Inverse folding.
């Protein structure tokens, strides 16, 4: 809630929010999921050649995302 880009003690979890696994070289969404009631999520990695991935979170209506790697 302090918009510092980090989850701090006492802040609400991002429950039931969309999460996307994106392949960095193609920008393809290769997996998607939703967080659980505790804000946790997981993906089964795709089969095939090794690749790099990034995780992106959907932004709920009425919320503002913080910057990537905010300090």
């Amino acid at each position: 809630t302090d918009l510092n880009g980090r989850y701090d003690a006492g802040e609400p979890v991002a429950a039931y929010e969309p999460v996307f696994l994106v392949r960095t070289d193609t920008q393809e969404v290769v997996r998607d999921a939703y967080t659980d009631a505790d804000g946790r999520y997981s993906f089964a990695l795709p089969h095939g050649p090794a690749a790099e991935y990034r995780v992106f979170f959907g932004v709920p209506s009425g919320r503002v995302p913080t910057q990537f790697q905010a300090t």
Remarks:
- The mean pLDDT is 83.
- The CA atoms of residues 21 and 55 lie 5 Å apart.
- The chain has no helices and three strands.
